Amino acid sequence: MNVVAVRETVAGEKRVPVTPQTAGRLVRLGASVAVEAGLGAALHVPDSAYEAAGATVGRREELLAGADLLLTVQPPSLEVVGSLRPGAVTAGFVDPFFNHELVRALARGRVSALCVELIPRTTYAQKMDALSSQASLAGYAAVVVAARHSHKAFPMMSTPAGTIAPARVFVVGAGVAGLQAIATAKRLGARVEAYDTRPVVKEQVQSLGARFVELDVGDTGQTEQGYARELTPEQLERQRQQMAAVCAHSDVVITTAQVFGRRAPLIVTEEMVAGMKPGAVIVDLAASTGGNVAGSRSGEVVVTDNGVTILGFSDLPSSVALDASQMYANNLYNLVEHAWDGEAKRLRLDASDEIVGGCLLTHDGEVRDERVRAALEAIA
């Protein structure tokens, strides 16, 4: 089976889906591995490192035409999908609930897509959970970028010239990204507060040294897969009213709230931003899916009239691309290894398998995931 990786074309994307280490592991499984020349250039990984691992280096057009399995970071472009032969397989991010034309193109081209966003959130599947691995790095990078844009030092400092109070950081959402943001801000010496609609995460927040902010919004909870349940419009309004006071005294606010398969909920309104102090920084990790913050724009820095900086960066894992690539490539390798037929030396797309069946988005010309299929039919 010919496993292929080509260079990403999305501006600013530095991550790779295959590292020399995972290329070697794929070769030992029995696959042939080929990568586009310069695949690891942004990470200062030369082509010779891939060749030393047993991979071959080639030209993009030839690699795509001969690919049995294409590994990707960003969702593949329509042009890339059109270059694949029927029966080929892709594995990587697809963004299926918002990338409707791509999903249709995959089905139309009879390309089987293993969509990492759909991997079940089970204990066994954790080693394949690319959403979590990349969210963890995004949470770390969010604090680093906030510190860079803030005019305030994070730790408390006692000096002969006076004492500097610690920065106050408020993290909204205590999932993977939020917990890593809390831990990073604490390591930098900030005073950290955090909020989540799921009371079950209170102990996790406190174990990291942060104060858990308790807001009365009524009954909340989480889904079977561990995601926060979507709040009603009334609950969101109650949440915003109580959260405004916390935002007002914060130097940094980091929002991480996303609802799987849906537009991100608006949490920080214009009025809340207007009530924040000049020089405050907001990092909206949900900017690419609609945004948690009024006025945030995906990929942009916005400075409001009252001097609040809103960062809508959507490529934060790529800002630490070396480690992000290592984690992501391991996620993909573990998925391939799980589905690998050792005797035939190729993938076995067994739809009855919990993990393979759960993330097999398209196969044999059909969209298999019921939620994505319903979304497509709703806009047909």
Question: What separation lies between the terminal Cα atoms?
Answer: 36 Å
Instruction: Tell me the strand order in the biggest sheet.
Output: 3-2-1-4-5-6-18-19
Proportion of helical residues: 25-40%
Q: Globular, elongated, flat, extended or rod-shaped: what is the shape?
A: globular
State mean pLDDT (0 to 100 scale).
Answer: 94
- The secondary-structure class comes to alpha/beta
The oligomeric state is single chain
Account of the protein in words:
The chain is 34% helix and 17% strand. By secondary structure, it is of the alpha/beta class. The strands form four sheets. An eight-stranded mixed beta sheet has the order 3-2-1-4-5-6-18-19, sandwiched between helices. α6 packs antiparallel against α11 (321-339). The chain is globular and about 65 Å long.
Question: Quick summary of this structure?
Answer:
This protein is an alpha/beta fold. It contains 13 helices and 19 strands.
What attributes characterize this protein structure?
380 residues, alpha/beta, globular
Topology:
Blueprint: E1 2-5, H1 20-29, E2 32-36, H2 47-52, E3 56-58, H3 60-65, E4 69-71, H4 78-83, E5 89-92, H5 100-108, E6 112-115, H6 130-149, E7 157-159, E8 162-164, E9 168-172, H7 176-187, E10 191-195, H8 202-207, E11 211-212, H9 233-248, E12 252-255, H10 270-274, E13 281-284, E14 301-303, E15 309-311, H11 321-339, E16 340-341, E17 346-347, H12 354-359, E18 360-363, E19 366-367, H13 370-378
Parallel strand pairs: 1-2, 1-4, 2-3, 4-5, 5-6, 9-10, 9-12, 10-11, 12-13, 13-15
Antiparallel strand pairs: 6-18, 7-8, 14-15, 16-17, 18-19
